[in-house]
Amino acid sequence: MDAFERYVRSGLELAGIPVDDVDLAVMRAADAIYGPGMRALAGADLREVMPEIDLDPSRPPHAS
Amino acid sequence: MSHPQDLSLREQAAAVADGELDARELLSATLARIAERDGELNSVIATFPEQSEEMLASAPRGPLHGVPIAVKDMYTLPWRGPRDGTSREQLPPGESAVFRALRDAGAVVVGHTNTHFWGGGSTGHISAYGPVGNPWDVKRCGGGSSGGSAASVGARLVAGSVGADGGGSIRLPGAYCGVTGLKSTFGAVPADGYSHPQASVDAHGPFCRDAADARLLGEVLLGGELPAGDGSGLRAAVVHDPFWTDLDPDVERACRDALDASGWSVEEIALDGAEHAQVAAVLRLTLEGIPALDEEDLREADPLMRALVKYEKLLPAELLVRADRVRAQLRRSAAAAFERFDLLVWPTVPAPAPLIEAPVIDLPSGQYPADAPNVRQTGFGNLCGIPGITVPAGLSSGGMPIGLQLQAGWGREAVLLDSAEHLERATDRAHVDALPPIAAAAA
């Protein structure tokens, strides 16, 4: 059992959600596709990027 | 006269208004065409002969008086709650804002269209009602999640339909099916009676065969004029990385040709945060839907969809916070870009519609399930809240449609329609008037 499978099985078990081999295979495939982008996002330096506290997607951001 | 569904939306509306076309005959012919032609295409999952007749009997003399329209199975109707591609009603029957807008314009709702399960995919191959096919090849995906709405217009079952777009769900199937699809600015069409009211990325809009029809139906949905202007002489920006990279060669060629034909001034720019747009869009649009799912939804879900939800439940919360920072960054980048340019332009889809049996696409960097590269092209617009339109831009060497995506600043739907009409003229309407085999065979 590799780290991914341990993470999936224990994480879902903690949440009381069952997991089977099909789930695991799909999740592994999803992680192969989206995982690199998510890890890049996790590692991005966003300290200077201020969030939009008053987000209104119907309009441009207030700062502009 | 040819079949009335071979007329454009505006031709149908004008013919009914002028008394040249009987609205009851139009409705009857539309229902007959759906029954005859939809078959394997599977774009319309329910028709409403009785309720459509009732709508017609009391239809006001509005801009779409007597014109049949199909709507995505995510909007409530007074006689049917939306299923969202599942087997169960997700909302009780009622009057959605989309229904009210159509009714008040005199339109006749003829059907609910097939939708990717939970509205959660760009291919349309997973649905409790079976996969939705493509009018250009029924063995290929009609797209998602508004695939039935796109395919029904492409196959000339109806001249107008309505869809919703949370990660590209109007623009992507529009491109796959060779029709014009307009995603409006977030909030421009009210979301009441829509099955994903929690979404901060979803917007609504029309599918039609061309931009002039989309303007007519768009005005009805948005509840105001979208005045026609001059779409030539616009300032367009392209963003090479990531939106013009790793494309199917046919897509890149067709989109470059269309852009060249436009005669617009074109400048290449960069958008801060664009490298994270795909993942940020996926995180936002999937995670904000999870609290709306219940155990029964999960039990009945397709194994693929169920496993993906479980995967999403394990994602660290920090990622969503980071995604929202990227969203803020992208919105500021977009606002700055629209101070200098009228349009942001890039391909709607990175590759033409894949086979239903194996919904993967081949790109220069490898083979992928279609969803991830598709959202790369469209998620930016959802995070920003800006309007976008897909315009037919040609066919691949395999005979499948290709779409060019145009995006404009908040509230500038009219500019998008102007630019789309200009592109149609610049390409002699070759792409919007092309007939798919399912329609050509019967013509």
Q: In sequence order, what are the helices and strands of chain A, one letter per element?
A: HH
Large-scale geometry of chain A: elongated
> Would you report the number of β strands of chain B?
15
CA-atom Rg of chain B in angstroms: 20 Å
Q: Which secondary-structure class do the elements of chain A indicate?
A: mainly alpha
- Contiguous uncertain segments of 5+ residues of chain A: none
Strands of chain A, total number = 0
Number of helices of chain A: 2
Given the structure, what is the number of helices of chain B?
A: 16
Adjacency order of strands in the biggest sheet of chain B: 1-3-2-6-8-7-14-15-11-9-10
Helix content of chain A: 40-55%
Largest interface: A-B, 38 and 50 residues
Distance between the termini of chain B: 12 Å
User: How much of the residues of chain A is beta strand, in percent?
Assistant: under 5%
Largest sheet of chain B: 11 strands, mixed
Strand content of chain B: 15-25%
Quaternary state reads heterodimer
Catalogue the unreliable spans of chain B: none
The pLDDT mean of chain B sits at 97
Mean pLDDT over the residues of chain A: 94
Residues in helix, % of chain B: 25-40%
